[in-house]
Specification:
By secondary structure, the protein is an alpha/beta fold. 36% of the residues lie in helices and 20% in strands. A hairpin with a 5-residue loop joins β3 (49-50) and β4 (56-57).
C-alpha cells in the first residue's frame, strides 16, 4: 500500500477565534501553524489566508507573504492554495493565488448550499475556466467533491479534455448541504472514481477521525486541520493543527501505513 499523504487544512475561511483561539489569522500565526503541522507529518498545506482581523481574503499579495514565510520554515512542503475562497467572491478574486504558480491548487467541482442563504457557486463553465487556468500553468488540481454529482461532473469534463489526469480527488464529507460523513457515503464516493485515481478524505467535525481511519485502511489519503474540525476528541479543543496531524500519524502507524514525505507525495500524485 502507498505511503499516506497527510494534508493539513490549517485555517479555512469560516472558523473564528470565537470558536477556538488556536485558529490562525495573521501571517506569523499561519506560518507557525503550517510549520507545526509539517513537523508533525503533513506533506501538504491546504492554504487559505486571512486579514489580521480574521476576514478571509484571496489577495495575491497576502498569499505571497504567507507562502514565502512557509517556504522559509518548510522548504520542501507542498503548498496547496484554495481557489474556493469564501462565499460571494468572484471567479477572478478566487483565482488570484494561482498567479503565484503553486504546485497544486483546489478545484471545487460543483455548487453547494452552505446553510441559510449561503450558496457556494461553482457552475460548469466556472469549473472549466478554473481547470483551464490551472492547466495553462501546470498546476495540479485537487478535485474537491462534496457529493457524488461532483464526481460525475469531473468524469464528464475529464472525458472531454477539460481536466487532465492523473486525477486526485478530495472527498469533503459532512458539510451542511453536501453528503453526510457516514462510512456508507465515503465508500460510495471511493467506488465512483476511476481505479487509477488517487483520493483523500476530509471529514468535517466529528467525522474527521472515523473517515481518516476508513481512508487509511482503504489505501486513500487524509486531510485534517482546524478548518475542518477543532476538537482532538469529544469536548476537548485541539491546541494546534500539529496535534490533529499527530493523531492521524498515530492511527496510521497502528494500522500499518507509513507517512509520505513531501517528495514521496509528489511522486504518488504525479506532480513534476
Amino acid at each position: 500500500m502507498e505511503k499516506l499523504i497527510i494534508t493539513a487544512a490549517i485555517c479555512g475561511a469560516e472558523v473564528s477565534k470565537e470558536h477556538t483561539k488556536a485558529i490562525p489569522y495573521t501571517i506569523d500565526e499561519i506560518v507557525k501553524e503550517a510549520y507545526v503541522a509539517y513537523k508533525s507529518g503533513a506533506s501538504i498545506i491546504h492554504l487559505h489566508v486571512r486579514e489580521d482581523n480574521g476576514k478571509p481574503t484571496q489577495s495575491k499579495a497576502r498569499f505571497k507573504e504567507v507562502i514565502d514565510g512557509i517556504k522559509t520554515q518548510c522548504p520542501d512542503v507542498i503548498i496547496q492554495p484554495s481557489t474556493g475562497g469564501a462565499v460571494g467572491m468572484s471567479s477572478d478574486e478566487r483565482l488570484q493565488p494561482i498567479d503565484l504558480n503553486p504546485e497544486m491548487a483546489t478545484l471545487d467541482c460543483g455548487t453547494l448550499n452552505f446553510g441559510g442563504d449561503e450558496v457556494f457557486i461553482n457552475t460548469e463553465n466556472m469549473i472549466k475556466e478554473f481547470a483551464k487556468r490551472m492547466q495553462d500553468k501546470d498546476i495540479k488540481p485537487e478535485l474537491e467533491c462534496f457529493e457524488k454529482g461532483h464526481i460525475d461532473m469531473v468524469l464528464r469534463l475529464y472525458k472531454k479534455g477539460f481536466i487532465k489526469g492523473p486525477l486526485h480527488f478530495s472527498f469533503v464529507l459532512g458539510v451542511n448541504g453536501g453528503m453526510s460523513g457516514e462510512l456508507r457515503d465515503f465508500l460510495y464516493m471511493k467506488e465512483s472514481i476511476p481505479a487509477d485515481a488517487t483520493y483523500s478524505v476530509a471529514g468535517i467535525g466529528r467525522n474527521e477521525f472515523p473517515l481518516a481511519v476508513a481512508s487509511i485502511i482503504s489505501g486513500g489519503h487524509v486531510r485534517v486541520g482546524l478548518e475542518d474540525n477543532i476538537y482532538i476528541q469529544k469536548g476537548q479543543l485541539a491546541q494546534s493543527n500539529g496535534e490533529l496531524v499527530e493523531k492521524v500519524v498515530r492511527l496510521a502507524k497502528e494500522l500499518g501505513r507509513e507517512i509520505a514525505s513531501p517528495d514521496e507525495a509528489r511522486n504518488i500524485l504525479g506532480i513534476n
